[in-house]
Input
Amino acid sequence: MTRVHIIGTGGTIASKPESASRSNDLDDSTSGAVASVGIADIIGVTSVEGDLEVSSEDLLLTGSYALDMSQILMIVDQIQNRIKDPHINAVVVTHGTDTMEETAFLSELVNDGSKAVIFTGAQRSAEHADTDGPRNLRQAILAATDPRVSSMGALVCFDGVVQSARGVRKSHTTASQPFSGGATVATFHDNKLEMVANPDRRSTLALPANGFGSVRIDVHFAYPGSDSGELIKAARGGANAVVLAGTGVGNAGPGYVEAVMHLTDMGVPVVLASRAPSGPVVPIYGNGGGVDLIAAGAVSAGVLSPFQARILAACLITQEVSVFEFKELFSSYR
Output
């Protein structure tokens, strides 16, 4: 018998409308979806067949937009604890979609590939007539129990598609399939899992220390007229590293090359990502473009979104590495 352990953290899959309080100066008739449904209740309306045993726990019950870095680390730490349990064969995590890409990527970075870890959630809340939560959870459980998936690290299972955590990002606010960017490793057809590809994985990072929660990694977006001096202000204000979300394949306007050089001299790493919704950073342009930014000391984020780049940067900063070491390690784990 296969045992799957489900860790509930909240999100839309666990949400239903709740009347607002008068103390917030809102009318009592106003309702917003709030994470309030325990994972056992969600499992109770999820039909899963097969020779398996399902256990569960509510680790958190919150919208993922409210998570901080310490809570993301707490979730991943608990995943690792459950993976070590010899009586558990796979782990499924229900999570809000807003920041699933960050938590799933941290889980991927520290996952040794010994057991499947599948993230899922919902785009329509628990009380919705057409809620997608139970279906997504059922498919995540089925994927987690498939031996072909067990060595693939952390994955995101949503709307019949299983993607690698690395590179995945929320690219649509309301669509049933909100995620793109990850490698598609499998798809569901009539509740049967059809394998597509094996994800490209890296060596395993150690779980970050508790200092992960207090590391400050700022994200700065480049746009016409943006102020490159904000990078220097961030570094002087206490940022341990900065992710520069450049335009296109990784470019930024006047002043950014000098700002990157300044931060590098200060010992503050700069990661060059793209603000584009998909595609890798590919340094092509001079005149202050990606080629010059990399030459000035930035390291490319590769396929990582600015927000996954921020997670990897935070992991490396906790190791107290030099700027040179940071660049070498980031390039090998991105």
